[in-house]
């Protein structure tokens, strides 16, 4: 059991020579790991005083009760009496909220729950239907994994959702530690913490954790801290309150510190106001001398940044640069309206299973004339039509930023006088009107095109 769990379980007190010693007053000087285990984190970086933990829980929950946003998944979690349907409602919201803003998710969530209100309904849907509803939400594999896991619950687990965070993570594909903790605490009242991007930011500021917040060692400490802090009587509300605080008050660039309900517990704020992590003189200040959780000596505290010194992250890897030639083939439909040819992407990889205009990856240094010729060759081989490079009209370029790819689409158009039938073994294809295109499972990038 880590120091944090011990503090939570034992009330933050340690017996020494028959006398209770508050954990917050213990010095780490002279301490050494026993039996080869890692040394506990320095006291200034953890919550070890049970009175402070209790006050933080009360203040945060009182603020949440007053200020929480009215969100559809919260309503369902609070009103749905069936545990499986309640867990499903929370699960869908948590998957959608990964890497996506709340404002974007709300409409998608409402349409999803209206179309598939139960696990059983989702398990019976086709992947094409799932992709169509998910289109525009990004990170498309999330919807696919969600449906795969729903099928497992329905067909292998007799329709019963796992009841603990441990089993949720172990049994359901695509459910990681955070999602499992969120479902278990909100739906079942399991006293388990959660750590997402908002929680990382809040906890790092509360305890001046300035080491790389994406490193495994720091993430482990944050999970220990979240599990120690979570309110035992209202774990779901507490976890949502901590995330809500990070989303609305303790935001990345301009935090609203004066409105923060737990500002008296925030050592980053104390450091900004008093020049050190805490104004209390008998609690040790780590400084930067070898502490694994303080900011590295090469990146010391910057007083101009204040609390936004935290969290620290490793430099982001630059996205890969990619170019593709994309052709919008157009014909006149039977009613005179224009129709466009779309093809389906492979079932794995980027944008798996989505539909797009016929596209061809390009070398970065390929000149425009060569790009046009390469696309004409591709279309000729694909369609059997005598496509010539000169018939391709250059329209322009579209840039779309994926999480790891800076993608440029070089867009051409090609009007056709008749039908084109593609080999479905190479790629499924179909002609669609503009309205049908926007209703199909197409990516935001293709909508830009």
Automatic annotation (TrEMBL):
Cofactor section: [4Fe-4S] cluster
Domain Nudix hydrolase as annotated: residue spans: 319-449
UniProt GO cellular component terms: mitochondrion; nucleus
Reactions that this protein is recorded to catalyse: Hydrolyzes free adenine bases from 7,8-dihydro-8-oxoguanine:adenine mismatched double-stranded DNA, leaving an apurinic site
Subcellular location: Mitochondrion; Nucleus
Record Pfam families: HHH, HhH-GPD, NUDIX_4
Any GO BP annotation: mismatch repair
Protein name in the entry: Adenine DNA glycosylase
The organism of origin for this protein: Phaetusa simplex
Gene that this sequence comes from: Mutyh
């Amino acid at each position: 059991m880590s120091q944090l769990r011990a503090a939570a379980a034992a009330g933050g007190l340690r017996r020494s020579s028959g006398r209770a010693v508050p954990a917050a007053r213990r010095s780490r000087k002279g301490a050494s790991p026993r039996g080869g285990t890692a040394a506990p984190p320095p006291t200034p970086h953890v919550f070890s005083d049970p009175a402070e933990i209790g006050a933080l829980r009360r203040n945060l929950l009182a603020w949440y009760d007053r200020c929480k946003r009215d969100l559809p998944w919260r309503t369902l979690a609070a009103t749905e009496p069936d545990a499986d349907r309640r867990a499903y409602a929370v699960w869908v919201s948590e998957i959608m909220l990964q890497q996506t803003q709340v404002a974007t998710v709300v409409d998608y969530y409402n349409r999803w729950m209206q179309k598939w209100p139960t696990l059983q309904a989702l398990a019976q849907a086709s992947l094409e239907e799932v992709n169509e509803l998910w289109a525009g939400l990004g990170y498309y594999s999330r919807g696919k994994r969600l449906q795969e896991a729903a099928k497992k619950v329905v067909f292998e687990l007799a329709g019963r959702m796992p009841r603990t965070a441990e089993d949720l993570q172990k049994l359901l594909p695509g459910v990681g530690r955070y999602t499992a903790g969120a479902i278990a605490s909100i739906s079942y009242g399991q006293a388990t913490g959660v750590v997402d991007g908002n929680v990382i930011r809040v906890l790092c500021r509360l305890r001046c954790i300035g080491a790389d917040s994406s490193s495994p060692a720091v993430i482990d400490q944050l999970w220990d801290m979240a599990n120690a802090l979570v309110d035992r009587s209202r774990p779901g509300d507490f976890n949502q309150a901590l995330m809500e605080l990070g989303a609305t008050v303790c935001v990345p660039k301009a935090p609203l510190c004066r409105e923060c309900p737990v500002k008296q517990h925030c050592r980053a704020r104390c450091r900004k106001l008093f020049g050190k992590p805490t104004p209390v003189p008998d609690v040790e200040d780590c400084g930067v001398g070898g502490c694994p959780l303080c900011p590295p000596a090469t990146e010391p505290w910057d007083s101009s940044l204040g609390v936004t010194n935290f969290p620290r992250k490793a430099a982001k890897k630059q996205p890969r640069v990619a170019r593709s030639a994309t052709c919008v083939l157009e014909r006149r439909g039977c009613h005179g309206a224009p129709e466009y040819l779309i093809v389906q992407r492979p079932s794995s990889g980027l944008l798996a299973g989505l539909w797009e205009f016929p596209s061809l990856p390009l070398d970065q240094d390929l000149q425009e004339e060569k790009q046009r010729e390469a696309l004409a060759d591709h279309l000729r081989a694909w369609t059997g039509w005598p496509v010539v490079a000169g018939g391709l009209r250059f329209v322009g370029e579209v840039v779309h930023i994926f999480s790891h790819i800076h993608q440029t689409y070089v867009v051409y158009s090609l009007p056709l006088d008749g039908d084109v039938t593609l080999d479905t073994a190479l790629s499924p294809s179909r002609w669609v009107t503009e309205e049908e295109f926007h209703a199909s499972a197409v990516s935001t990038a293709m909508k830009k095109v």
